Amino acid sequence: MLMKKQNIVIIDYEAGNLQSVKYALERLGVNAEVSNCEKTIRQADKVIFPGVGEAAWAMKKLRETGLDQLIPQLKQPVLGICLGMQLMCARSEEGDTKGLGLFPVDALKFPAEDKVPHMGWNQIKQLKGKLFEGIKAESYVYFVHSYYVPLNAYTRAETDYIKAFSASLQKDNFYACQFHPEKSGDIGQAILKNFIKL
Amino acid sequence: MLAKRIIPCLDIKDGRTVKGINFVGLKDAGDPVELAKAYAEQGADELVFLDITATHEKRKTLLDMVEKVAKVLTIPFTVGGGISSCEDVAQILKAGADKIAINSSAVRRPELITELANRFGSQCVVVAVDARETNENWEVYLNGGRIPTGIKLIDWLKEAEKRGAGEILFTSMNHDGTKNGFANKALAEISEMINIPLIASGGAGEMRHFADAFTEGKADAALAASVFHYKEIEIPELKTFLEKNQIPVRI
């Protein structure tokens, strides 16, 4: 019941499948508001920064609405998903795009040693932090991406595809998943629940 | 390790799932929302909804069905059938689908693939191809296998990838409905030629066929309909079987 009282805002910047995240939260009994309003986002208990699409285009959208300035100032827990996580990095090789700089690493293009995008269910391991409480190592979650964030000091989960890379990052109140928890079955629902409980 | 995906396909007509044998002789096989939920619970990795009559009858995919499915489903799903513009795709994605599949409309106007990839990203653009083999030549067919095009399968797949397709869903019309196994030789050739994921479709009849599609056919995912709808193959059993055969699956 406590979870229902939470005020969760999903940042709307016309990038990708916001509805899936909203539905996933509703399945956990939490209503989320989809918004690009600065005041609404600032007042939220938790903020989700989703993203599907192309990095340069997405950053352009964020700049147009001033969200690029707002997001790094947020003090409440923020969860970046997929492109959202890559935009939270210093830079992405996709369109040579400057990111929000919350994590001092770059998102790189997968070398063409195997099929790209990395699409489908893959295992996460070396799990650390509150997002992964109660989640077993080697659990499968759903990925769709062509760029990856290398392992670094802020890595909280790892996955192997072509090479080992960051499946999740965390620094202070900023959390991020390369995979889609909203599309990762029961495991994904559990990870979202952990975020809501923060 | 990246798991091989098992994808039940729900062919949709008038809001109900159906499966044809070689694209004719349709039977009602249940309610899509209930089926979708059941498949996710059984361990399906993804679902595909194809409105098989949409292109033929110029009907649009039912958006309210997509929305109902999106609300209950915790795994990704693709919607295809009757999609011919960015506007169609925007509506389907907004209703909650993760990917869309285009088939005839892309063959008729290949620029559509480019437009969709640029606007929505390659990751949500599945190019579905129906093809038939005659004298060792694979030819692309349109409208659910009704119209031959004269286009060579390999040429078309290369173009689809170049234009930004994120995934290929290949259905062999020679194998579809036969339950004699997937078109593994063709699948292997395609899988080695393209650098995007390949979904095998058409011909599943027993569990061994799925294993063969992944090993001989080098497919990244395998799709089937009737064997799942009529419970001839149960997904948990299938995945256990695949795991025993050293194929990485999500259990």
Counting helices, strands and paired strands, the structural category of chain A is alpha/beta
| First-to-last CA distance of chain B | 13 Å
Q: What gyration radius of chain A follows from the Cα positions, in whole Å?
A: 15 Å
The tally of structural domains of chain B comes to 1
Give the C-level CATH assignment of chain B.
Alpha Beta
Topology-level CATH name of chain B: TIM Barrel
Q: State the assembly state of the protein chains.
A: heterodimer
Structural class, from helix and strand content of chain B? alpha/beta
EC number (chain B): 4.3.2.10
Main location (chain B): cytoplasm
Pfam families (chain B): His_biosynth (PF00977)
Protein name (chain B): Imidazole glycerol phosphate synthase subunit HisF
Task: Describe, in plain words, how this protein is organized in 3D.
The complex is a heterodimer of chains A (198) and B (251). With 198 residues, chain A is of the alpha/beta class. In chain A, 26% of the residues lie in helices and 33% in strands. The model of chain A has no long low-confidence stretch (mean pLDDT 94). Chain B has helices at residues 32-42, 54-57, 63-72, 86-94, 104-108, 111-120, 153-162, 184-193, 207-215, 226-229, 235-244, and strands spanning 5-13, 16-21, 24-28, 47-51, 77-80, 99-102, 125-134, 137-142, 147-152, 167-172, 198-201, 221-224. An eight-stranded parallel β-barrel of chain B has the order 1-4-5-6-7-10-11-12, surrounded by six helices. In chain B, helix 1 packs parallel to helix 3. The longest helix of chain B has 11 residues, at 32-42. Chain B is globular and about 45 Å long. The chains are: A alpha/beta (198), B alpha/beta (251). The interface between A and B is medium-sized, with 36 and 33 residues. Chain B: Pfam families: His_biosynth (PF00977). Chain B: One of its GO terms (molecular function) is imidazoleglycerol-phosphate synthase activity. Chain B: One of its GO terms (biological process) is L-histidine biosynthetic process.
